[in-house]
Amino acid sequence: MRRRSKDAKGSGGSSRGRGSRVVIVVLIVIVVLAIGGGVFAVSNIMRSDYENSSSGGDSSFGSWWGGGATEEVEDDSAYLPTPIIATSEGIEIHSAVPANHLTEILIHNASYSYACPIETQLTEATNVDVIAAHGTGRDAKAQPTGDAWMTGEFIRCFRSSNGGPRMSAIDCGGAPGTTVYAPVSGTVVRVTEYKLYDEYPDIRIHIQPDGNSDLDVVMIHLQNATVEAGDRVEAGETPLAQIRDVYAYIGDEMQLKDYTAEDDMGNHTHIQVNDKTDKKYHGLDE
User: Fold this and answer.
1) What does the pLDDT look like over 158-181, one tens digit per residue?
2) Highest-pLDDT range among 41-50, 60-69, 117-126
3) Checking CA distances to 69, which of 18, 57, 164, 181 falls within 20 to 30 Å?
4) CA nearest to 284, candidates 208, 220, 233
5) Half-sphere exposure (CA, 13 Å, Cβ side) for 2?
6) What's the pLDDT tens digit per position in 235-261?
7) 266 vs 71, which has greater pLDDT?
8) What are the percentages of helix, strand and coil residues in the chain, rounded to 5?
9) Before 98, cis peptide (omega within 30)?
10) Burial class of residue 193 (count of CB atoms within 10 Å of its CB; 0-12, 13-18, 19+)
């Protein structure tokens, strides 16, 4: 009996052992499937959050899903062609930055006397008020496009060390990487890499405007130029380059920074119209 019991126990134990193993295997399969489903669900949530972040939501999952956080790029098409912001020597100057990315417009005296005077229909702001409010409060969505004048205010500053007319250079503000559009219609004459203040890398674009071959429209503080000499450009709609992060070079010397949002560094593209017939002008020399 004891042997039989032992045999029975051995036999019965083996059967139950196989049954137990089957049960364990089944449980393992269930657990694996459950974990797999959970991972799939979590991955879907992460993907969903990432896709939401790419369309304007929280981008914190961007770095999880490869490539880092993705910043939404707003379509400029509804704001093109950009409106007129100034005139000089009979030519109309359009904003180089579309209203949806424009921080502020600052007009100041250029460095040299060969720069042509600039006129504008924008209202001159009271600088101390702009500083206090961190901007003029221009409504981007209310701005016209094409051959109409921009509305709102501009900031005027005077730089005592500069020799140009009191209003002869325009700073169109925008964040680094913002697309810059042609301020005038005409032909690109030159795209030059040079040293800003003889020290920092920068790009300068020269455009001969339609209707006045004696003028040279010059833009600086640029990167990633998309045009070259000989290209035809249309005012307010042909992309030229992107705004360069000049603040990274000169820090708080960036004048526009005093008049923009607290988290804005005052980066911009600089526009001026030069008189090519002036003997002092050598901007197009080889």
Assistant:
1) 999 999 999 999 999 999 999 999
2) 117-126
3) 181
4) 208
5) 0
6) 999 999 999 999 999 999 999 999 999
7) 266
8) 25, 25, 45
9) no
10) exposed
The two counts, helices (H) then strands (E), for the chain are 3, 13
Write the CB contacts of 189 (distance below 8 Å, at least 6 apart in sequence).
206, 207, 208, 216, 229, 284
Alpha carbon separation from 62 to 43, 50, 56 (Å, rounded): 13, 6, 12
Pinpoint the alpha helices (H) of the chain: 2-54, 127-133, 247-250
Exposure b/e, 21-33, CB count within 10 A at least 16 = b: eeeeeeeeeeeee
d(CA 212, CA 235): 15
> What are the tokens at 260?
């923009």
Span 48-84, pLDDT tens digits: 333 333 333 333 323 222 233 333 457 999 999 999 9
Do residues 123 and 150 make contact, with C-beta atoms less than 8 angstroms apart? no
Task: Tell me the backbone φ, ψ of residue 65, rounded to 5 degrees.
Answer: -95, 20
Whole-number Å distance between alpha carbons of 146 and 78: 11
Cβ-contact 246, 200 below 8 angstroms: yes
What tokens appear for 66 in the block? Answer: 């490869």
The whole-angstrom separation of Cα 104 and Cα 1 is 101
> In sequence order, what are the beta bridge partners of 204?
192
Contact 70, 63 (CB under 8 A): no
Nearest to 86 by CA among 113, 101, 108: 108
Q: For the chain, what's the residue count? A: 286
CA-only gyration radius of the chain, Å: 32
Whether the pLDDT of residue 201 is over 60: the answer is yes
Q: Are 231 and 187 in contact (CB under 8 A)?
A: yes
